[in-house]
Design goal:
Elements (H helix, E strand, L loop, with lengths): L11 H29 L1 H16 L4 E3 L5 E3 L4 H9 L4 E7 L4 E5 L8 H4 L8 E5 L2 E10 L2 E9 L1 H53 L20 H45 L4 H28 L7 E4 H18 L3 E6 L5 E4 L1 H18 L5 E7 L2 E6 L30 H11 L3 E5 L8 E5 L4 E2 L5
Parallel strand pairs: 9-11
Antiparallel strand pairs: 1-2, 3-4, 3-7, 5-6, 6-7, 8-10, 10-15, 11-12, 12-14, 13-14
Length: 463
């Protein structure tokens, strides 16, 4: 039987998991790339926002004295320290809008300040960037005079910001993306398991239907609506298969039954006909073979018709005795020795007595026909078991798998048997939920057939 698993090559679960993994990898890679690009510009964006905030704060510290000179005084010590200590990197100047003259600078030595030198007189309002310098111009009004406040920052502060921010952002981004991807994979795996579980359930249920259980149907309870059409189609197919199989069995049974009378009439006419002995013997042999095939076809039809079985406690020792008495005369014909051994006293099973007799009869006939002259054949009964062993030539290992096939014979060119005996045995064994085990070479040198009825054993009074 084929086992359905998530890791099996070509399985739906495997394909879905690979698809989830690939799509998840692509999506998270794109998110990571976007966040990385954002992190690269994060420091510049942060500086731009801070420059806007400083440009808005500077006018609060501007005032004109009595002589009309513009002065700057900041109560923010940290901000003042930044201008004094980093004046070559962060600087501002104030321009009178009416005269376009510079009336105040954060560094009186303009020629030594790279930041101030990067602030042209025609600087546009708002944020701009040129030659590695971040610039910002804001129009303000101080004591009724219209002014421009120009703020500049060179790359040193930006590099410091990038050096401080980017490693931290990279670590956070990496850990976040790896954790999110692992969570995505776990959620995808659980989701896929939940998706394919109904598929596996239906497959296992379908795989468990044996040829003798064609009346079984797939359970639709809990099946997703997307799978219902498939389950319904499979059930409809099983209906058609069961119908066709029943028609085939009826045809075989009817044909075999109809052939019995013509064969009997033919045998009678042959016996009354005045034919040479050699021809009459050959024709009688052919008629006997055809009669045997017809009888076994009827036995096979009965074995397959489990509805006609009457299951009740059956003493398998009595079954073995009846069969041995029935076939006793054949031991003389085939020159064999037949023995019955009872391992346990009065072993009983739940089953159909007529079917069990047919089963054991075919097993014993098989041993009688194929063992050499003088071979020993033993029928052994025990609690929940019937065994037939012989001291014949045994069975080749390569023939074991073909033993229970219909119409298979070891010597296909001969008419020593119909090839239906062991097929009938297999049908009866399956109908009783039993198990048959074949030992190709036993201690006697021949073959042994064990039939086990573990689930149908009737407890004895002593147990």
């Amino acid at each position: 039987m084929n086992q359905v698993g998530v890791t099996k090559k070509g399985s739906l679960a495997r394909k879905l998991f690979i698809l989830f993994g690939v799509m998840g990898g692509v999506v998270f890679a794109l998110i990571g790339a976007i966040l990385f690009l954002f992190s690269i510009n994060f420091a510049n964006i942060a500086v731009e926002k801070s420059m806007h905030g400083m440009a808005e704060d500077i006018p609060d510290g501007l005032h004109f004295d009595a002589q009309g000179r513009l002065n700057y005084s900041s109560s923010n010590i940290a901000k003042k320290w930044g201008y004094d200590a980093l004046f070559n990197n962060l600087a501002f100047k104030v321009i009178d809008r009416s005269s376009n003259a510079v009336i105040l600078t954060s560094n009186p030595h303009i020629e030594t300040s790279v930041a101030l030198l990067a602030l042209p007189m025609d600087l546009p309002e708002g944020y701009s960037f040129s030659n590695g310098i971040d610039r910002y111009r804001m129009a303000v009004s101080v004591q009724g005079r219209e002014l421009y406040v120009d703020l500049a920052r060179d790359d040193l502060i930006g590099e410091l910001a990038n050096e401080a921010v980017l490693p931290m952002l990279g670590q956070v981004l990496t850990l976040t993306m790896v954790a999110a991807f692992l969570i995505f994979i776990c959620v995808g795996y659980v989701s896929i398991k939940a998706i394919v579980k109904p598929v596996n359930k239906v497959a296992e249920e379908l795989d468990g239907i044996e040829p003798a259980q064609l009346d079984r149907r797939l359970d639709k309870k809990g099946v997703p609506s997307e799978m219902l059409p498939l389950v319904n189609a499979l059930n409809d197919t099983m209906d058609r298969v069961e119908k066709g199989f029943k028609e085939q069995k009826r045809f075989v049974a009817n044909a075999a039954h109809e052939l019995k009378t013509p064969l009997a009439v033919l045998r009678t006419r042959l016996e009354l006909a005045n034919l040479p002995d050699k021809i009459a013997c050959e024709l009688m042999s052919d008629i006997s073979y055809m009669t045997r095939v017809v009888e076994q076809l009827l036995d096979l039809s009965r074995a397959q018709n489990q509805n006609s079985y009457l299951h009740k406690p059956v003493n398998i020792t009595d079954v073995a005795k009846d069969v041995c008495m029935l076939l006793g005369p054949l031991t003389l014909t085939y020159q064999k020795e037949l023995a019955l051994e009872e391992v346990d006293e009065n072993p009983s099973v739940i089953g159909d007595q007529a079917a069990l007799i047919i089963m054991l009869k075919n097993l014993l006939e098989n041993a009688l026909k194929h063992a050499q002259d003088g071979a020993q054949i033993i029928v052994e009964v025990a609690c929940g078991r019937i065994s037939v062993k012989d001291s014949g030539p045994g069975i080749k290992e390569e023939d074991r798998a073909k033993l229970f096939e219909r119409f298979w014979r070891k010597e296909q060119s001969t008419l020593t048997g119909s090839g239906l005996g062991l097929a009938i045995v297999h049908e009866v064994v399956s109908a009783h939920d039993a198990k048959i085990d074949v030992i190709c070479n036993n201690e006697l040198g021949g073959a042994t057939f064990h039939v086990y009825f573990h689930d149908r054993v009737v407890p004895t009074a002593s147990s």
